[in-house]
Amino acid sequence: MTVSVVIPHFYAAREPNLPALVTRLLTGTVRPEEILIWNNDAPLRVRLPAPVAVIQSPRNLGCQARFLAALVARGDAVVFQDNDVMVRPRTLAALVRWATRAPRAIWTLDGRAATAEPYRRWHKIRRITGAPQRVTVSLGRLELVTRATVREILAVFPFGEEAAMDDLAFSACARQCGIPIYVPPTAPDEHLDRLPEYGVGACRTDGHYDRRDAVARQSFPDRPAEETPDGAHATAR
Questions:
Q1: Of 70-74, 152-156, 175-179, 194-198, which range is least confident?
Q2: What pLDDT is recorded for position 87?
């Protein structure tokens, strides 16, 4: 399974993160076929090696831009990665293994499982052991989705202002299509490392979590119970 990595970049302050996270991607046990950076800001000043391709947008299209980049990806699978995290040596290899077993699913390293409470109190699921755990939302910090599954979800994705919180909208569309979202168990060399946020980010805006509570309530009114995939267990890695 070949992999295209899509990185949305629309905070100029985080540009210093790009060389480090690209280096990690290119030196892991699975090397991406391509790395697509959708640049919503001023042209990049840093030099990045092949197979990095920068898509320079004429205007800031916000967080939904990652899905436009995914539509031109060549890999069998698309990895969406934020620009404030970087992979460890076997992170991509682990996600590819799980996706090979369940290709019509979203495999994420950071999910939330719904409860009857507001979104901000939903269970945080990451760095687990044992069996994969099904979640309601993938935060998109690092997730792998086969290209065919991406296209299936985007066929019903509500591009526009109503999808400003792209992770909630993408996860809701996946549920609409009957596509599950799982957080797999991970070994230490399959985790993520955090990079500086440089004081910027959607979560820092006033009223952010109030808006997420409202959008989550509207997107997931049934507060679904989640379960592990049939036959899945930690020995897959």
A1: 194-198
A2: 98
Q: How far is CA 126 from CA 11, 48, 182, in A?
A: 25, 30, 10
- Mean pLDDT rounded to a whole number for the chain: 90
φ, ψ of residue 202 in degrees (nearest 5): -60, -35
Q: pTM of the prediction?
A: 0.91
Q: Write the DSSP string, the chain.
A: --EEEEEEE--GGGTTHHHHHHHHHHTSSS--SEEEEEE-SSPP-S---TTEEEEE-SS--GGGHHHHHHTT--SSEEEEE-TTEEE-TTHHHHHHHHHHH--SSEEESSEEE--SS-GGGSEEE-SB-SS-EEESEE-SSEEEEEHHHHHHHHTT---SGGGSSHHHHHHHHHHHTT--EEEPB--GGGSEEE---TT--GGGSTTHHHHHHHHHHHH-TT-----PPTT--GGG-
pLDDT category, 227, cuts 50, 70, 90?
A: low
Go through the domains of the chain in sequence order and give each one's CATH number: 3-222 (3.90.550.10)
pLDDT at 221 > cutoff 90: no
- Give the whole-angstrom CA distance, residue 52 versus residue 26: 10
